Amino acid sequence: MSTTAAAVFDDREILHRALALLARGGRDAGPGLAACRRLQSDGSTRRFWRLPLPGGEGVIVIAPATVTAAELAEARAAWRIGNHLRRRGVAVPEFYGWDEESGTLCCEDLGDVRLQEAMAGRGEEEQRHWYELVLAGLVDMQLSGALGFDADWCWDSPRYDRALMLQRESGYFLRAFWQDLLGREPLAGIDEEFGLLADRAGQAPCEAFLHRDFQSRNIMVLGGRVRFIDFQGGRFGPLAYDVASLLLDPYAGLSPGLQEQLLGTYCRLVESRQGGGGALAATSYQWLALQRNLQIVGAFAFLWKVRCKPFFAAYLRPALASLHERLEHGAGAEFPLLRSMARQGLAAVESVAG
Hints:
Blueprint: H1 11-24, E1 37-39, E2 47-52, E3 58-63, H2 69-87, E4 95-99, E5 104-108, H3 115-119, H4 124-144, H5 162-181, H6 190-201, E6 208-210, E7 219-222, E8 225-228, E9 235-237, H7 239-248, H8 256-273, H9 277-305, H10 313-329, H11 336-353
Antiparallel strand pairs: 1-2, 2-3, 3-5, 4-5, 6-9, 7-8
Helix pairs in contact: 4-8, 5-6, 5-9, 6-9, 7-8, 7-9, 8-9, 9-10, 10-11
């Protein structure tokens, strides 16, 4: 089959291919399709199913909505990166099979409990305990995962760099939130501020494995352990980016005090594994946190307005509040235009919400 144009495999064809993959790996699918259940996704366009096996374990089946060269490349990256991380002992699911033609993946079922749900209603002491487990796993993924990592496995870019920051983070914020959602014109000079921020963030070394969407809905809790999913966008990147993703996460809403404590814990964990790495992470955190915060706002605006997923609307305001707070009391003096945009954007979203 040529992948120059999009192809579509219907659900039944995908599931038959999944059963064949499992059979080749020696796994009995028992009742097969009759026991399979379609799952909802968050922002992804991919399709997901849960397939229980007779022995009690389960399989998650993942497939692109349409098969294009880009969709196949992303699925291939999930297969290759996932197997690499698993070999390195990182807390990711086991992969059972991959179909090159349709992009179908079969992997271990980690249940339904995400860190976001697991933390609901818990006090800060319990949150701290679980997040310390997550941070230990994160540091292991970043450092162990970088060993032997092949940049050719990456499906869109091999490294977190200035172009990515300007196009998919600050540029995403400008297009998807400021222009498309709010309907406003860019402020004269904002590109220069975005460039300055990218220069600051770009000073951090990019030698760690970067997940790039490390937040509480991509962390599963099962049997008292945490496991990480959705790493197919992995590449080389700076240490502090993923911890910023985790601590700023609007789904979790961690208090500023707890964020600060956990950042200190993270830096100590890095330092114990890589002397000097903790200090580097602490120094670059504020710039990478701003970059990540801009990406979050842009993504939530896009998913709400363009993908018509109202789930994300509820989290746009806390994402903006975090950005506003960071610019008002942190490094905002260097970015007066961005600080003004965050203030105006927050007021506009609060007005709509009110």
